[in-house]
Amino acid sequence: MSPHVLPHVLPHVLIVAGSDSSGGAGIVRDVEAVSAFGLRCSLAITAVTVQTHQRVERIEQMPPDLVADQMRAAFAADPVAAVKIGMLGTATAIDTVASVLASSLPVPVVLDPVLASTSGRQLLDDEAIDTLKRKLFPLCALVTPNLPELALLSGLPLATGETEIVEQAEKLFDTGASAILVKGGHATGATATDLLIQPRREPVRFDASRIAVAMRGTGCMLASAIAAHLAQYETLEISIGKAKRHVFAKLLAVRP
């Protein structure tokens, strides 16, 4: 058993992310996903957003020292066995989060790189994207970009096939990333394929039938579900497979 997890106490997943007043994404989705697997959450709120399901109307960033204090308190209070990171918003917030993680007991970190809202509003500027790659990627067990996010992170046009996806993901290994899960929700075709790409290994495919339904927050849900399984000492591949099946079931449940 990891030394930071106390016996007979449920492991916690520390969620470092923003709120969404509509409940469609952000910490609401994160907590729902972690709770579905019988674990508890600790929270560090990075931003408060005013959102409907159609647009982001306002964003208030939390002061970086407040984010850091929330994280330190969570580590002190709870048996944190994994961390899921979502919206960070600024380069200063990224620096702060990376600093706290680097000085904390080692736990698996899953980063969902929230670069823009579903409605298209940019949530992280170019300088902050560079900071995200340099400071945070090396601390993460997994980074989970969708195809548009992968293009922004790699500085290349939107990938149109598996070869281009792998090439773009491999560019991120130069930043110290150890594993990239490229989500296929923005692709086309009858099958939605997520690709796990790791240095010097063959890509691993996670396939599911594409469901014709729109749901916000599926990226939050997937990353949090992966973190929940990592917190229970599952392997990365098993954690991803179980998380993808969880999201698929949620999509099936809302299909007309």
Automatic annotation (TrEMBL):
Gene3D superfamilies membership: 3.40.1190.20
The keyword Kinase is assigned to this record: yes
Pathway info: Cofactor biosynthesis; thiamine diphosphate biosynthesis
Cellular component per GO, a single term: cytosol
Domain of life per record: Bacteria
MF annotations from Gene Ontology: hydroxymethylpyrimidine kinase activity; phosphomethylpyrimidine kinase activity
Alphabetized UniProt keyword annotations: Kinase, Transferase
Residue ranges annotated for the Pyridoxamine kinase/Phosphomethylpyrimidine kinase domain, each copy included: 20-248
Top-tier EC class: transferase
Enzyme Commission code: 2.7.1.49
Pfam family, one: Phos_pyr_kin
Record GO biological process: thiamine biosynthetic process; thiamine diphosphate biosynthetic process
Protein name as catalogued: hydroxymethylpyrimidine kinase
